[in-house]
C-alpha cells in the first residue's frame, strides 16, 4: 500500500485539507506489494482508516495503557462520562469518509485483480510454449540415448565374441603347449629308459642326472616314472607268445630296464636313507625333511617311515628295555606287589608318553605324512615295548597246579592283570591324545590282553575257591589252637564242646563279600559289553552264593552236632526203676550235666541261626546294591540270579529247620525231666488234714517256667518274623501236649484241681509272650477243663455246655478225679459222652 502520510501528510494543514477534500481526490491507496509476504488483514485495515480515525490509534494506545484491569480486561467508562460525550459530538461523524474510502478500495482491488489475472494469463502462455519446447528436446534426447544403447549392445556382443575366440585360442595354445611339454618329457624319458635298457646290471653309462647328488629329487622322480611305465607295459602284454615277436622283444627289453631301475632305486633309496641317518644324528631337520620328501616317492615313503621308527633308541637299546622291567617290578621281581607295580607302570607310561610326544614334534617337522609315521611309531611302542613288559609282568599260572597263597595265589595274578590292563588303557588314551593317525589304539591295546581275558572268568572263580579254602583252613587252625590252649573238655561229664571259633561269624561272611566285590570290580574293568559283563558277574556271584551257603550250612551242622551230643547224653543216663540210691544219685547228677549241655547247645544253635540270618541279609543287600544293576540290562539275567540265590540258600534253610526241630526236642526233653523230677503226687492230691489249701504254683511248674524263660531268651533274640512265630507256636503246641500227657499220671482232688488251675494259669501267662493265639486258646481251654476237679459230681454235666469241643479231653480228666469210682461218675456221665 502506498503511504501518502509519510512526509507532507504529517503536518496539520495538510491533514485538514485532506479531510475537507473529497475521497476521489485521494491517490492510490492499495498496491500489489501490500499483498506479498506475510499478509495481515488487520494491518491493511489499520493503514486504510488510520488517517480518518486518529482515535483508532488512541484507543489502541489506551488498550495498551494503564486502564487495563489486573485480570486483562479494559475498565469500562462510567455512565456519566458516556452521557457527556454523547451530548458534545455526533455518534460517528467519519462514517461518510469511511464509506467512500471503502468503495475506492474495492475499485482498486478489482483493478488489481484484473492486473493479476492478466499477468497469470501471460505466464500460462509462456509456460505452455516453454513446455512444448522442453518436450520436443526430451524426445530428441531419448532417441539419441536409444541409439547409444544399441551401439553399446553391439559393442558388448562384439567384445564377448572376441573374448570367446581368444579363450578358445588360449585353450588350444595351452593344450598344444602341454602336448609339446609331454612330448618333450616323453622323449626325455625314452632317452633315459634306453639308458637303463642297455644291459642288465650296468648302471655306469647313465646320464649325469642319476649320479648328481644335487639333483637327487629329480632323479628319483624320473626313475619312478620310468619304473611305473615299464612295469605297466609288462603287465599289459603279459607273458610273450611266439606269434608276437615284436611285443616279446619289447617286453624283454623293458624287463631289463625294470631290473636296472629296481637296482638304481634301491641304491638311491639306500643312499638317501644313509643321508637321512646322518642328518638325524646331527638333528638337521631340514636335511631330514628333504630326504623324507624324496623317499616318499618310493613306496609312498614306507621304508623311510619304518626305518626312522626302527632306529629309535627305545626299540634297539637293551638297557632301556631292562630299565622298564626294573622300574615296574623293582630289584626283586618275585616280591613285587600290585601297588608297587601300579606306581611303576604310571612312571614308565608317563615316560613313554613324553618320549612319543617329543618324537611327534620331530616327525611333524620332517615327514610329509606325519600321521602315518605316528601310527607306525605308536603301533611299535605297543607291540614291542609294552608287549615285552607285559610278558615279564603277567605270567599266566596253571589252573591245574595253582600257586600257593604263600606265593600270592591266583589273586596276585588277577590283581597284577587288573593293574596292568587299567594302566595300559590310560597309556592308550594318552597316546591317542598325542596323535597316532588312523591306528585303532583301543583295539590294539585289547589284543595285548586277549589271551588273558579269554580265560579270565575261570581264573576269577578258581581264585575265589582258593581264598575260601584258605579261610576255612585258617579257621580250623585257630579253633584247634584255642582247644589246645584251653585244654580238653571231658565229654563223659556231659560238657558241650562248642567254641566261639566254631560258630558262624558275620565277619567271615563280610570277608567273602569283600572278595566278591573286588572280583566284580575286575569284571567291570575287563568286560565292556553288557551281555559279557552280566555273564561274568553271574559266575562270580554264584561263587559267593556257594561259599556262603556252604559256610552257613556247615556252621549250622556243627551247631546241630552239639544238639545231637546233648541228646545222646540224655539217653545215656536214662535208668530203670530198680537201681540203688547211689546209682540214682549219680544218674541224676549226670542228667543235670546233660541238661546243661542241652541248654548250652540250644543257645549255640540260636546264635548260629541269628548269624545265619544276618549273613543272608548281607548277601541280599549286596545283591541289591551292587549285582542287580549289572544284570538288569540283560533280559532274564536278574531273574535267573534271584532263583539261583534262593536255590543256593535252601540247603542252609534246611539245616536251620532241622536244627530248630532239634531245639524243640531238647527243650521238651528238659521240660519232661523237670516235671518228672519235681512233680510230687501230693501236689494235686493234698491230704485232708484240715490245713488251708496251697494256691501257689507247684515247684515243677515254677522250675519249668523258669527254664523256659531262661533258655528261650536266645530264641527271642535270634529269630524274627514268621520264623519266630512258627517256632514259638510249635513249641507251645508241644508243651501243651507234654503237659497233658504228664497230668494223666496223677489223681486230683478239689484242692489239687485248684492248684492245677494255678499251674495252668502260670503256664498260660508265660506263653502269652509267644504271641501265638492258637496256643493261648489251648491253655484257656485247659483252664476250663481243670474245673472238672473242682466242681461237685452233679455239676459236671453243665461244665461243657458252652464248649463241646473239649469233651474228649474232659472225659480223660474226669477219670483222674479221686472220687471217680466212688461217685460212680462213669455211669452218671455215660449219657453226656454218648
From TrEMBL:
Bias-annotated ranges (Basic and acidic residues): 1-14
Exocyst complex component Sec10 N-terminal domain ranges (all copies): 97-212
Key words of the record: Coiled coil, Exocytosis, Transport
A GO BP annotation: exocytosis
Domain Exocyst complex component Sec10-like alpha-helical bundle: 218-828
Highest taxon of the lineage: Eukaryota
Keyword Kinase: no
Classification via InterPro entries: Sec10-like, Sec10_HB, Sec10_N
Annotated region (Disordered), positions in chain: 1-23
Protein family: Belongs to the SEC10 family.
Protein name: Exocyst complex component Sec10
Organism: Flemingia macrophylla
